[in-house]
Amino acid sequence: MSSHFHHVPVLLAESADHLHLKPGAVVLDGTVGGGGHAETILDRTSPDGLLVGLDLDSEALAASAARLARFGERVHLVQASFRHLDTAVRELGLGQLDGVLLDLGVSSYQLDAPGRGFRFAEAQHVETPLDMRMDPSQGPSAADLLSRASADELQGWFQRYGELPGSKRLAQAITRCRAESPLRTTADLLRVIEEAGIGRGRRHNPATLVFQALRIAVNDELAALQEGLEMAISVLKPGGRLVVISYHSLEDRIVKQSFRSAARGCICPPRQPVCTCGRGPSLELDNRRPVGPTAEEEGQNPRSRSARLRAAKRISEAA
Ligand SMILES: C[S@@+](CC[C@H](N)C(=O)[O-])C[C@H]1O[C@@H](n2cnc3c(N)ncnc32)[C@H](O)[C@@H]1O
Questions:
Q1: Ligand 1 atom nearest 63 alpha carbon
Q2: Ligand 1 contact via 134 beta carbon (within 6 Å)
């Protein structure tokens, strides 16, 4: 399986630079995937830096284990969500970390893997099960959610996670269609989207937004991101670096707001004259605006087009 893993790491040099890697550094890659970023981190922290790599996907972990084998005991791979990264750090007996990287979303490998159901292109011709789980051994699949969720829940997901015009119409079409036969494959879902007649004449295929919304719901991605960011800040040592690469506006909004709130510290209402929460800032932001790919990277790797990197330095709250 691992020999077929194909994924070109995005914003590789930029993320390594913002992590300020030094020999001996201890870095956690919360989305190790095929190990592209991890390999650069290990190279730049030679000879004795440590890398903890987390991923929900056992196939990704197998691929990164093969790719990173030459680093021997410097690598610790764990099948876990980054929302629990503090547990992984504690169980490995590591103290505070020098860096944390989160490269969000799905890998090209997952998108291309037949049977995972992440991609809708070619779905009319290929019967792919509607799965969409990052870890296919855990929790309900997209097909399970589509068979159980109420019309209101479905509408809420399509609105919040896909910002889809026609969310209500699609939710109603799904509940109508599933009463006749369950939606099991990507082709079944595409037929309902077509029948609901949403997004006609728009620039983007509405199926892109529907698939994005379902994937976010299946993997509880936005809540995991919010919690993962809090955990990441909590495990960094003062001076440690946090780097996050997001791929759509919902993710980037959460990263931006979490970073700004950690950089502000105080959570008192804005009009309160004197601070009573006593919270100081815990992050210092590298840039106000996110870093995107160069034209050259975009040309070589179209997947990088939507990537946005935000980076920050951990400061001690007393600072
Ligand atoms: C864009 S890929 C990372 C690619 C990696 N940086 C590389 O260079 O190969 C995102 C990875 O994050 C994983 N993932 C997504 N959500 C996760 C979560 N909450 N916890 C851990 N891994 C997650 C996916 O399974 C996928 O392998």
A1: 9
A2: yes
